[in-house]
Amino acid sequence: MKDTIKLNQGAGGELMDEFIKKKILTAFGKQSAGEVPLSSLDDAAVIDDIVFSTDSHTVQPLIFPGGDLGSLAVCGTINDVAVMGAQPLALSAGFIIEEGLATETFETIVNSMASISKSAKVPIVTGDTKVVEKGAIQEFMINTSGIGRRTKILDENIKEVKRYRIFTQRWLRDSNLKKGDAIILSGNIGEHGIALLSFREGYGFETKIKSDVAPVNGLMERALAEGGLVAAKDPTRGGLANTVNEFAEKSQVGIILHEEHIPIPTGVRSACDMLGIDPLEIGNEGKVVFGVVEEKAEEVLRTLKKHPLGKHAAIIGEATTDVKGVVLATTVGGRRNLHKPLGDPVPRIC
């Protein structure tokens, strides 16, 4: 039987990771360049102190509780640049539109992009538009790319890190964790995936749960100004479980998470229980997972809580050499291995 590409190979998690490494990096890996190359599989690349990232968005439905395709596209790329420790500067936007899309829907999405990019102070400066035959795609897809630059605030953050341990990197990378570093989550998880799934399937949870889609560059700036950050990543496809496993794998260190400290809204937990979904595997679009030197963890946490996006922030774990991979200390006193999910349990959410 002819081998074909499966939907879950683009849904984050282990299957997508394997697909990228075997089918994409084998083609492009040899031409990797820059201080943070493609082969590192961080959220963005770094070329001559310029951070560069790109992302394509195929969410269904196009408009959902708390956001839409446009806000998702803008925030997703801003966030990928910001979590490297850079200041996002500008975006591009590429539209692929199915013939027959309602003009009103298109205008809603484009106006949303304009509003978010303006509020985040990251303008859309170039782009491209294509219209394809009906049936060629599903309504509307957007690709956004973004660039960012190094700032003094990142350098000051690294100086603060070096007060407490040896640190040789110049950017916040997935591979930077060391034993003792604290894991901090900036807020509630699971809201984006559950809001979208509920609205799409008509479960009714959307009356209480809205997507968390938001640009995190302001939050990152506050955290960097406090100092002590060694890593940062937005837990999108594959959720928190995927993110911390990437940290552990690339840093070659174990991570223990404490279930009781992970902020999961009651509505999200109830929905996940009903649907048989693990909230730790659900994608988010306005959160950050930080690696912070132990000595600065409480100060960074207090700083995050002062920002609107960080009011539910919590220290949820630590890097350690006592375990391999990621281990979840459960609320009932046991422990279980938290593996990288095969894919996000809620498809087409970004």
Give a description of the structure:
The protein has 350 residues and is α+β, with helices and mostly antiparallel strands. It folds into two domains: 42-149, PurM-like, N-terminal domain (60s Ribosomal Protein L30, Chain: A); 152-337, PurM-like C-terminal domain (Phosphoribosyl-aminoimidazole Synthetase, Chain A, domain 2), CATH 3.90.650. Helix content is 32%, strand content 22%. The chain has nine helices and 14 strands. It has helices spanning 13-28, 69-82, 103-120, 152-162, 191-201, 217-226, 239-251, 266-275, 297-305; strands spanning 45-47, 50-57, 63-64, 67-68, 87-98, 124-132, 140-149, 182-185, 229-233, 254-258, 289-292, 314-320, 326-329, 335-337. A seven-stranded mixed sheet has the order 9-11-8-12-10-13-14. Strand 13 (326-329) and strand 14 form a beta hairpin. Helix 2 runs parallel beside helix 3 (103-120), helix 4 packs across helix 6 (217-226) and helix 6 packs antiparallel against helix 9 (297-305). The longest helix has 18 residues, at 103-120. The radius of gyration is 19 Å and the shape is globular.
In short:
With 350 residues, this protein is an alpha+beta fold.
Helical segment count? 9
CATH class of the largest domain: Alpha Beta
Tell me the overall shape.
Answer: globular
Measured on Cα atoms, how large is the radius of gyration? 19 Å
The whole-number mean of residue pLDDT values reads: 94
Number of strands: 14
Domain tally: 2
Largest sheet: 7 strands, mixed
**In the CATH hierarchy, what is the architecture of the largest domain at level 2?**
Alpha-Beta Complex
H/E series: HEEEEHEHEEHEHHEHEHEHEEE
Low-confidence stretches: none
Major beta sheet, strand line-up: 9-11-8-12-10-13-14
* First-residue to last-residue Cα separation: 30 Å
SSE-based structural type: alpha+beta
Helical residue percent? 25-40%
Strand content: 15-25%
CATH superfamily of the largest domain: PurM-like C-terminal domain
